[in-house]
Design goal:
By secondary structure, this protein is an alpha/beta fold. It is globular and about 55 Å long. Helix content is 37%, strand content 15%. A five-stranded mixed sheet has the order 3-2-1-4-5, sandwiched between helices. Helix 1 packs across helix 4. The protein folds into two domains: 140 residues, Ribonuclease H-like superfamily/Ribonuclease H (Nucleotidyltransferase, domain 5, 2-Layer Sandwich); 41 residues, no CATH class.
Length: 201
């Protein structure tokens, strides 16, 4: 069972992003404030869950959360400011959209740019440890997957309905055959010389 909170004195929001390692599409981030007694047996790091489980939990989170917000930064801005800064910006945008501002922020990972004067803690693999981060990971992942499905309908060659923009063999081979789209991140190495190094999801 995931931990309900990092500290119990301040209103705590969990933050996570999805799509940092992709070759195409935006990076999405979510911020979630959960009730301290929130529990669900399926709640976990979104990467450890099946798509149907993520969709089920998304509905539960959206219904039960005190508040939540999702934001994104597109590929053009990623190319301008770099993916790390874009990930932090997406998290800040999500935090800004929350109906209730948190007093403490829990962030998945080991780095974060401070959001105003609100204290924060970076938790490596926090999406597998804390409920609010896990909830944020599920929202960021499902909202981004929906977006990539829409792009897939326009650019079906790349398999974005399956790989969501990650560098799979199919994605790289489609890049070689069809070239880049306006949604590809030009600052990323889109076509390494050795396709054997690619991974499949």
């Amino acid at each position: 069972m995931l931990r309900s909170y990092y500290q119990d004195q301040l209103i705590e929001a969990g933050c996570d992003e999805a799509g940092r390692g992709c070759l195409a599409g935006p990076v999405f981030a979510a911020a979630v404030i959960l009730p301290k007694k929130f529990r669900h047996p399926l709640l976990n790091d979104s990467k450890q869950m099946k798509p149907a489980e993520r969709e089920k939990l998304r509905k539960v989170i959206e219904k039960k959360a005190i508040c939540y917000a999702v934001a994104s930064v597109d590929n053009e801005e990623i190319d301008r400011i770099n993916i790390l800064k874009a990930s932090f910006k997406a998290m800040h945008l999500a935090l800004e959209k929350l109906q209730q501002q948190p007093e403490f922020i829990l962030v998945d990972g080991n780095r974060f740019n401070a959001y105003g004067n609100i204290p924060h803690a970076c938790i490596v693999q926090g999406d597998g440890l804390y409920a609010s981060i896990a909830a944020a990971s599920i929202l960021a992942k499902t909202y981004r997957d929906d977006y990539m499905q829409e792009l897939h309908n326009v650019y079906p060659h790349f398999g974005w309905n399956v790989n969501k923009g990650y560098p799979t063999k199919l994605h790289r081979e489609a890049l070689k055959e069809h070239g880049e789209t306006p949604f590809h991140r030009k600052s990323f190495r889109l076509l390494p010389e050795q396709l054997e190094l690619d991974f499949d999801l």
